[in-house]
Write a structure and sequence with these properties.
By secondary structure, the protein is an all-alpha fold. It has 2 domains: 66 residues; 68 residues, Arc Repressor Mutant, subunit A (Orthogonal Bundle). The chain is built from 7 helices and no strands. The termini are far apart.
Protein backbone atom coordinates (compact mmCIF):
# COMPACT_ATOMS: atom_id res chain seq x y z
CA UNK A 1 0.00 0.00 0.00
CA UNK A 2 2.95 2.34 0.32
CA UNK A 3 4.41 4.63 2.94
CA UNK A 4 2.44 4.22 6.21
CA UNK A 5 2.73 7.94 7.00
CA UNK A 6 1.19 8.92 3.67
CA UNK A 7 -1.54 6.30 4.06
CA UNK A 8 -2.31 7.66 7.55
CA UNK A 9 -2.42 11.23 6.23
CA UNK A 10 -4.76 10.23 3.39
CA UNK A 11 -6.98 8.35 5.82
CA UNK A 12 -7.20 11.37 8.15
CA UNK A 13 -7.92 13.69 5.26
CA UNK A 14 -10.57 11.60 3.49
CA UNK A 15 -12.28 9.25 5.94
CA UNK A 16 -14.60 11.71 7.70
CA UNK A 17 -15.93 13.38 4.50
CA UNK A 18 -16.45 9.93 2.96
CA UNK A 19 -18.24 8.69 6.08
CA UNK A 20 -20.54 11.73 6.13
CA UNK A 21 -21.35 11.30 2.44
CA UNK A 22 -22.07 7.60 2.94
CA UNK A 23 -24.22 8.30 6.00
CA UNK A 24 -26.33 10.76 4.04
CA UNK A 25 -27.10 7.88 1.69
CA UNK A 26 -27.41 4.96 4.12
CA UNK A 27 -28.81 6.87 7.14
CA UNK A 28 -26.92 4.28 9.22
CA UNK A 29 -23.65 5.18 10.97
CA UNK A 30 -22.34 1.60 10.92
CA UNK A 31 -23.04 1.08 7.23
CA UNK A 32 -21.53 4.49 6.48
CA UNK A 33 -18.31 3.60 8.28
CA UNK A 34 -18.10 0.34 6.38
CA UNK A 35 -18.73 2.08 3.06
CA UNK A 36 -16.08 4.75 3.76
CA UNK A 37 -13.53 2.22 4.99
CA UNK A 38 -14.10 -0.05 1.98
CA UNK A 39 -13.80 2.95 -0.35
CA UNK A 40 -10.47 3.99 1.12
CA UNK A 41 -9.10 0.46 0.94
CA UNK A 42 -10.22 0.07 -2.68
CA UNK A 43 -8.75 3.45 -3.60
CA UNK A 44 -5.46 2.70 -1.87
CA UNK A 45 -5.26 -0.60 -3.74
CA UNK A 46 -6.10 1.00 -7.10
CA UNK A 47 -4.34 4.38 -7.18
CA UNK A 48 -0.89 5.69 -6.38
CA UNK A 49 -0.74 7.59 -3.10
CA UNK A 50 0.15 10.84 -4.87
CA UNK A 51 -2.54 10.52 -7.55
CA UNK A 52 -4.38 13.89 -7.81
CA UNK A 53 -7.67 12.05 -8.38
CA UNK A 54 -7.45 10.14 -5.09
CA UNK A 55 -10.25 12.07 -3.35
CA UNK A 56 -12.60 12.03 -6.32
CA UNK A 57 -12.10 8.31 -6.89
CA UNK A 58 -12.59 7.55 -3.18
CA UNK A 59 -15.78 9.63 -3.14
CA UNK A 60 -17.20 7.74 -6.12
CA UNK A 61 -16.38 4.38 -4.55
CA UNK A 62 -17.86 5.47 -1.19
CA UNK A 63 -21.09 6.57 -2.89
CA UNK A 64 -21.43 3.26 -4.71
CA UNK A 65 -20.62 1.31 -1.53
CA UNK A 66 -23.18 3.33 0.40
CA UNK A 67 -25.84 2.63 -2.21
CA UNK A 68 -25.14 -1.09 -1.82
CA UNK A 69 -25.34 -0.80 2.00
CA UNK A 70 -28.58 1.20 1.91
CA UNK A 71 -31.44 -0.74 3.45
CA UNK A 72 -34.16 -1.32 0.84
CA UNK A 73 -37.71 -0.24 1.56
CA UNK A 74 -40.00 -3.14 2.25
CA UNK A 75 -42.52 -3.80 -0.49
CA UNK A 76 -45.61 -5.87 -0.85
CA UNK A 77 -48.81 -6.41 1.11
CA UNK A 78 -47.02 -7.25 4.39
CA UNK A 79 -45.30 -3.86 4.52
CA UNK A 80 -46.52 -1.99 7.62
CA UNK A 81 -48.71 1.01 6.90
CA UNK A 82 -46.44 3.42 8.83
CA UNK A 83 -43.49 2.44 6.61
CA UNK A 84 -45.54 3.34 3.54
CA UNK A 85 -46.67 6.63 5.11
CA UNK A 86 -43.09 7.49 6.08
CA UNK A 87 -41.87 6.71 2.57
CA UNK A 88 -44.59 8.89 1.03
CA UNK A 89 -43.71 11.80 3.35
CA UNK A 90 -40.03 11.33 2.62
CA UNK A 91 -40.62 11.32 -1.15
CA UNK A 92 -42.76 14.44 -0.83
CA UNK A 93 -40.00 16.19 1.15
CA UNK A 94 -37.41 15.25 -1.47
CA UNK A 95 -39.66 16.43 -4.31
CA UNK A 96 -40.29 19.72 -2.51
CA UNK A 97 -36.56 20.21 -1.83
CA UNK A 98 -35.67 19.38 -5.44
CA UNK A 99 -38.30 21.72 -6.85
CA UNK A 100 -36.91 24.57 -4.73
CA UNK A 101 -33.50 24.25 -6.40
CA UNK A 102 -32.61 26.49 -9.32
CA UNK A 103 -33.15 24.72 -12.67
CA UNK A 104 -29.46 24.20 -13.40
CA UNK A 105 -28.80 22.65 -9.98
CA UNK A 106 -31.89 20.45 -10.32
CA UNK A 107 -30.69 19.18 -13.72
CA UNK A 108 -27.20 18.51 -12.37
CA UNK A 109 -28.56 16.54 -9.40
CA UNK A 110 -30.88 14.56 -11.65
CA UNK A 111 -28.12 13.67 -14.12
CA UNK A 112 -25.61 12.81 -11.40
CA UNK A 113 -27.82 11.02 -8.90
CA UNK A 114 -30.82 9.61 -10.72
CA UNK A 115 -29.31 9.06 -14.18
CA UNK A 116 -26.01 7.98 -12.53
CA UNK A 117 -23.98 10.03 -15.00
CA UNK A 118 -20.29 10.76 -14.27
CA UNK A 119 -19.24 14.37 -13.62
CA UNK A 120 -17.84 14.65 -17.14
CA UNK A 121 -21.20 13.76 -18.69
CA UNK A 122 -23.08 16.13 -16.36
CA UNK A 123 -20.67 18.94 -17.25
CA UNK A 124 -20.97 18.24 -20.96
CA UNK A 125 -24.77 18.25 -20.78
CA UNK A 126 -24.75 21.59 -18.96
CA UNK A 127 -21.83 23.15 -20.84
CA UNK A 128 -19.63 23.35 -17.73
CA UNK A 129 -16.00 22.66 -16.94
CA UNK A 130 -15.28 19.77 -14.54
CA UNK A 131 -14.51 22.24 -11.74
CA UNK A 132 -17.72 24.20 -12.32
CA UNK A 133 -19.68 20.92 -12.40
CA UNK A 134 -18.25 19.89 -9.03
CA UNK A 135 -19.08 23.29 -7.54
CA UNK A 136 -22.62 23.23 -8.92
CA UNK A 137 -23.27 19.74 -7.54
CA UNK A 138 -21.78 20.68 -4.17
CA UNK A 139 -24.05 23.73 -3.90
CA UNK A 140 -27.09 21.72 -5.02
CA UNK A 141 -26.45 18.88 -2.56
CA UNK A 142 -25.80 21.34 0.27
CA UNK A 143 -29.07 23.12 -0.47
CA UNK A 144 -30.94 19.81 -0.60
CA UNK A 145 -29.45 18.64 2.67
CA UNK A 146 -30.30 21.93 4.40
CA UNK A 147 -33.84 21.83 3.05
CA UNK A 148 -34.39 18.22 4.13
CA UNK A 149 -32.91 18.78 7.59
CA UNK A 150 -35.25 21.77 8.05
CA UNK A 151 -38.37 19.73 7.19
Amino acid sequence: MGDPEIVTALYKQHFEPLRRRAQSITRCPHAAQDAAQDALLATLARLDLDDPGFGAYATTVARRNALRHRAPLATGPDRPQEDHSTAVVCRADVRRALSALPERQRRAVFLSTYADQPHEAVGAALGLTPNATGQLLFRARSALQSSLEAS
